[in-house]
Fold this protein.
Amino acid sequence: MSADPAGLSRDEVAHLARLARLAVTDAELDVFAGQLDVILGSVARVGEVAADDIPPTSHAVPLQNVFRPDELRPGLTQQQALAGAPAAEDGRFRVPQILGEEA
Amino acid sequence: MTAPTLVEFDEVVERFDPMLGLEVHVELNTQTKMFCGCPTTFGAEPNTQVCPTCLGLPGSLPVVNRAAVESAMRIGLALNCDIAPWGRFARKNYFYPDMPKNFQTSQYDEPIAVNGHLDVVLDDGSTFRVEIERAHMEEDTGKSLHVGGATGRIHGAEYSLLDYNRAGVPLIEIVTKMIPGTRERAPEVARAYVTALRDLIKALGVSDVRMDQGSMRCDVNLSLSPRDSGVLGTRSETKNVNSLRSVERAVRYEMSRQAGVLLGGGTVVQETRHFEEQSGSTRAGRRKETSEDYRYFPEPDLVPIAPPAEWVDELRGTLPELPWQRRARLQADWSLTNEELRDLVNAGALDLIEATVAAGAPAGEARSWWVAYLTQQANSQGVPLDELPITPEQVARVIALVASGELNNKLARQVVDGVLAGEGSPDDVVAARGLAVVSDEGELIAAVDEALAAQPDVVEKIRGGKVQAAGAIVGAVMKATGGKADAKRVRELILERSAG
């Protein structure tokens, strides 16, 4: 997301919160919009010093082509896999309703 | 929800141009997953093929499976794509429990293969070129089981159960460019493309491409624009299209449905729809997120893939004979017309005939057995030709027994029936049923003489020059020998013996 000179709107923050499944109150929206704006503005300053011929960095270490052979490695048992699950049923993770009726 | 208004297909084609796009996901048949060493076997007990990496547990790190990258590049090369000299994986972020990490690791704007094409053969024998936009690597999701609610569907379910055995299995997504100009052939082009892609990937040996098991899945994108207007319509994306026939039906249904919406004065909604196998219809799913909502960003835990040219060349050298090259070769070798070739392909007989020829049978006979008698048997048993319990080698053996005169055609069919009934090899059936042609000349002569003596009037006719009258005697001899005589030899003997 680019830093918009007009700033990050409350609606944008609300949208991001929804995508991240975070419940944010109206009062918090104002606070976060302001705070996130400051953060974006600070990060955007990097763009001011980076010349056009400098690509954005995604990886700090100059490495490429790191592969593993297609060989089986032992994993977890079903019991181990489910050990941390809040709920399980029939060897599966049990999760609450995914979509409401209206979706 | 009210039922949609469907417009007759002919009218749709008269008034609109369909624009088709196909996204096909192929599960690779590597031993292990894309980013960890868990097995990929289909049908295991739930959550028994998982580890901290594919469960997204804290502290785990992914490492790319080299064999999966090679398979992806081979698919790209076979589709005439350029292999990208550099590319990264990205995180596709979304909150949906089919990925325990809360993101799917996928290539995004830097796919490994771009700009290819696949020529597909249509029912009339003509070729249609489908342009390929890209093929990229990603990982499969887990499987959800929706509990409660009326239909076992996600809508109205009380809760869902997740099995992550499939989460992380290497997937290649192959995306076509928009396919214009298909008109009334849109359903056929879609099916022919998916068929050609399936055959190609099967030939490469990188996936078992079983649509019924989900190792090959197709999403159909379709929009309509008013005929000859060139104005792009809004597209729907239909998922869950899990057979070749369904691909065709889904395209046809969406054309009729969207035309109904447009002619009714409405607008087509950009959405994901689900194909219903039973009714052949589609129903609305979730509204499509925009790609911005997925907040893609480069995967920091995986370094870029930059295949050196030598690696790409080496993989190019491993490409097998591809389906269209093979079809062209067999057509020339067996002197087939386009129609004959198409029929063999449609009957699924190409491999079987080729294997029968490889086992020593002449091509003409091999073809005749598979497309005539064996196809009839397969149809009456309701199984695909290649699931008949007879091998190409066994068919070749039967053909050899006929060629050497040990069987006639009628006996040969009985031998094949015996093999199909599980009575063993052709030689076993011949021995057990006593089916060999009567090769004892003395026994044959005796049977001929007896038949001639029984019908003196026929003998008179033959002597009088009516050679065709011998047919009645041939029939009698065949009957007397239980059909085990060589009819050609019997006819010769009749003419010899009646001449005296």
Observations:
- Chain A touches chain B through 37 residues (CB under 8 Å).
- Residues 26-49 of chain A form the longest helix (24 residues).
- The beta strands of chain A are 67-68, 88-89, 92-96.
- Helices of chain A lie at 10-19, 26-49, 78-82.
